[in-house]
Amino acid sequence: MNAAFQLLLTLTGVTLLFGCAQVNGTMEGAARQSLRLCRGRASLLPLLFFCLAALLAMAGPGAILSTALVAPFAMTTGASARVPAFLTALMVANGANAGNLSPFSTVGVVVNGLMLQAGLGGHEYRVWFYSAAATCLVAGAAWFLFGGLTLFRRGRIEAMPAPPPMEARHAITLGVTALWIAAVVIWRAPLGLGAMGAAAILFLCRVASPKDAIRRMPWKMIALVVGISTAVSMLERAGGLSWFQDMITRVSTPRTVHAVLAALTGVISAYSSTSGVVLPAFLPLAPGLAARLPGVDAFALCITINIGSSLVDVSPLSTLGALCIAAAPASADTRLLYRNLMLWGFAMAPVGALLCFLLWSR
User: Fold this and answer.
1) Are the CB atoms for 76 and 331 separated by under 8 Å?
2) Bigger pLDDT: 185 or 21?
3) Which of 36, 85, 108, 264 is least surrounded, with the fewest CB atoms within 10 Å of its CB?
4) Are the C-beta atoms of residues 258 and 304 closer than 8 Å to each other?
5) pLDDT in tens, 247-266
6) How wide is the angle at C-alpha 91 spanned by C-alphas 86 and 96, nearest 5°?
7) How large is the greatest C-alpha to C-alpha distance in the chain, in angstroms?
């Protein structure tokens, strides 16, 4: 099957299924129910926001949709508990990124599909592990630096947002989604077709509106990813990727290529789409770069690209940072939040370069 069509089929199926879970309130209910696990302790809220965003992104929606779902009540609840808005935004955005490359996530599907096209398939869980580990390390540093420890000395939250009551449509949606994940993991069912089948079951059970679910699907992102993937394939046939590989190898050595590549993808990703632009453009370069630099592993280059491009996504010029700013309550200083996220986002480019250099350059 044509690779671009396979990618289109997978993205359409996964986003349709989780569009159903969004429109019938299942995703929001699960998120709000999870918030109550902290039992009103302000010190646990940032960690809970991180875990909640990670779990939602891991289950399928990806970082953007998970941030859009978690950020509104995370920013509001955090403000009511006197959690710094900057810390809340960092934990939500980094949490979403920690689950973003899950094999079940929309973006994880994109990355693994691109790596498969490049001859580097079969490493789905390793890809996720490296990306999640780097994001957890950065989020942990943010928690210590920006108020996590001081929250232990603060009181309990006076009011928590009450989750909506569990209804039949929520239980059916959760059950069908769990069956879909089991089918993919255990029986190796195709992600896209399996998700479409699960969405069809939800439509037949009348627990989600097909019209509303289709409207919730990120059609622009799907078109962008598939279009760029196709364009990169055409560019490769025309010899364009070879020119790009030559340019990178001129300024890199086997020891420095990971730092150079992580910094480059980080700077570009800070003001553009990671999943729609950076990953489809750079991941196909990995095998050629590895062939030109003796001793460099193509899989390691892919990990470097993933880490370098994702750590900067909290920038307000990126979608995740912008969603957190948009969700900030009226009491928050959005200009200060914007400045802090900008500084942190661009600071992650050299941080990502250093992490990848220490990880792979021996």
Assistant:
1) no
2) 21
3) 36
4) yes
5) 777 888 888 999 999 998 88
6) 130
7) 63
**Residues whose CB is less than 8 angstroms from the CB of residue 312 and which lie 6 or more positions away in sequence, other chains included:** 266, 267, 269, 270, 318, 345, 346, 348, 349, 352
Residue with tokens 């993937």: 229
CA atoms of 201 and 84, how far apart (whole Å):
43
How is the chain split into domains, by residue range? 26-163+218-360
Name the pTM for this structure.
0.74
DSSP secondary structure of 23-63? HTTHHHHHHHHHHGGGTTBGGGHHHHHHHHHHHHHHHTTHH
In tens, the pLDDT along 117-147 reads 888 888 889 999 999 999 999 999 999 888 8
Distances (CA, A) of 46 to 20, 304, 315: 28, 27, 18
In the 3-class helix/strand/coil scheme, how is 124-192 assigned residue by residue? HHHHHHHHHHHHHHHHHHHHHHCCCCHHHHCCECCCCCCCCCCCHHHHHHHHHHHHHHHHHHHCCCCHH
Q: Is the pLDDT of residue 1 over 80?
A: no
Distance between CA atoms of residues 49 and 44, nearest Å: 9
8-state DSSP, 165 = P
What pLDDT band is residue 151 in, cutting at 50, 70 and 90? confident
Q: Find all residues with CB under 8 Å of 119, minimum gap 6, and list them.
A: 287
pLDDT reported for residue 95: 95
In angstroms, how far is CA 56 from the centroid of its own chain?
Answer: 10
Tokens of 72: 């509104």
Q: Cα separation of 348 and 314, whole Å?
A: 9
Residue 173 CA to chain centroid, in angstroms?
Answer: 22
Question: How many Å apart are CA 115 and CA 279, to the nearest integer?
Answer: 10
Write b or e for each residue in 232-254: b if 16 or more Cβ atoms lie within 10 A of its Cβ, otherwise e.
bbebbeeeebeebbeebbeebee
Query: How far are the Cα atoms of 64, 73, 97, 209, 311 from residue 320, in angstroms, in the given order?
Result: 6, 15, 9, 27, 11
